[in-house]
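thought: user wants a sequence for this fold. calling inverse folding tool.
action: design(structure=
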């Protein structure tokens, strides 16, 4: 069907197809980038939680050591 169109129209149609493909590629790249950002945000949250848990564990170990020391006295 596009062969029945004048050459200028065929060229415009080809450019439209290229633009559609470019838009799809850009949308896919944007979606991938947003997914990566979300993943990195979750990794940061996990690191913060790990740090808090390690701090809590250190505090509990200290309290346990103090309790053990007081039992020895």
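)
observation: tool returned 73 residues.
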């Amino acid at each position: 069907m596009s062969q029945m169109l004048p050459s200028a129209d065929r060229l415009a149609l080809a450019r439209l197809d290229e633009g559609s493909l470019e838009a799809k590629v850009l949308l896919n790249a944007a979606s991938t980038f947003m997914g990566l950002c979300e993943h990195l945000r979750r990794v940061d949250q996990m690191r913060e939680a790990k740090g808090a848990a390690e701090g809590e564990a250190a505090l509990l170990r200290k309290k346990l050591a103090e309790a053990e020391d007081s039992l020895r006295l």
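thought: summarizing for user.
answer: Here is the designed sequence. The chain has one domain: 2-72.
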